[in-house]
Design a protein that fits this description.
By secondary structure, the chain is mainly alpha-helical. The chain has a two-stranded antiparallel ribbon. Strand 1 and strand 2 form a beta hairpin. Helix 1 packs antiparallel against helix 2, helix 1 packs antiparallel against helix 4 and helix 4 runs antiparallel to helix 5. The longest helix is centred in the N-terminal third of the chain and has 73 residues. The radius of gyration is 36 Å and the shape is rod-shaped.
Amino acid sequence: MAIGIATMCGAVLTFLSLQEESSAVDDDRYAQLETVTVKSRLVEADIQVRHERALVGRYRQSNAEAGRLEAEAQGAPDAAPLLDSATLMRRVARASSEVGAAFDWSKLRGVGEQATYDYEGRFQDVLQSLEYGSNVPGDQPALTAAAADRHRARSERYALGVVATISVLTLLTVARIGPVRLRPWIAGAGTVAGVVVIPVLVFTEWWA
């Protein structure tokens, strides 16, 4: 009877160990895919902000050129063409800031060639927008990897339980065929291993 129960426990623990290891492998795969998704969002946000950085650069350059033409016009005998060119440059710069639909110009601080842009803040905004439209939050790969570690730890516990079960079966078998005077002691050791050691090996990971 005891040997049959120990054999059944060993079979169940083996099944559970394989199941947990399979879950760990699946979670590892999911974590890799989620990591690729998160990294692709970072790249996409970086490309967007680099594009906007270029727009800001052209905006500042146009205003700087307009300022240079205005300064040159102050000492020129015929200042009208220079001022017209400067006005055109400023219109071009202003128009570029008004038609950039994908560009959050509210992040622009100041005007003209002295304007600055909050690239880091814009990067975080773009990244959050991309994450909002995705089913993979930024911290999901780490959570999935942690789940894989938990499954693997449980698999190892179950595997240790299988080893302990084999030891119990060995003790119970020896108790049946060993010397009569030693049978109670051997059987007692097997019972202690089955009742105490195996549950500790198997369930402490779940209690942690």
